[in-house]
Design goal:
Elements (H helix, E strand, L loop, with lengths): L3 E3 L8 E3 L17 H14 L1 H13 L7 H35 L8 H15 L25
Antiparallel strand pairs: 1-2
Helix pairs in contact: 1-3, 2-3, 3-4
Length: 152
Amino acid sequence: MAATNRHPFLSNVPFKDETPLPDDIPKVDEVGATSAPLKSAAFFIGAYCKDFNDDYMLCKNENNDPKHCLKEGRKVTRCTIELLRKLRENCGKEFDAHWQCLDRNNQEYYHCRPQERTFNTCVFNSLNLEKVIPGTPQGKPPIHLKEKPIFK
């Protein structure tokens, strides 16, 4: 059963919605990760879960009703959970080093490029996933592969 807890803002009574989801909505666990691990894994999630993400976005374009795409959203969530589990199993030390660096450095990638390179190499070697940044100019190295990037 999904429940929402909210700190009482304008009331002295906390809000907790215990309304169960309908039975036709597949059950799924929460991802269970904060913003830093999700940001660290974001490009890999995009690549690994591309088909599920595309289905979800097509569904959202069909209809703005939030209930319309719950099944597709659950598939994206399950895929993300699966990838995070694989990252922890195969590249746990490198993953932890990268997301903890992001957490300590205001989520700025450029502070954590050495940890990112190590993490990206491990993910490529273990899971055959490569970090690809959409919109990178063709023929130029992506920012995460530059040894001495210039920031202005």
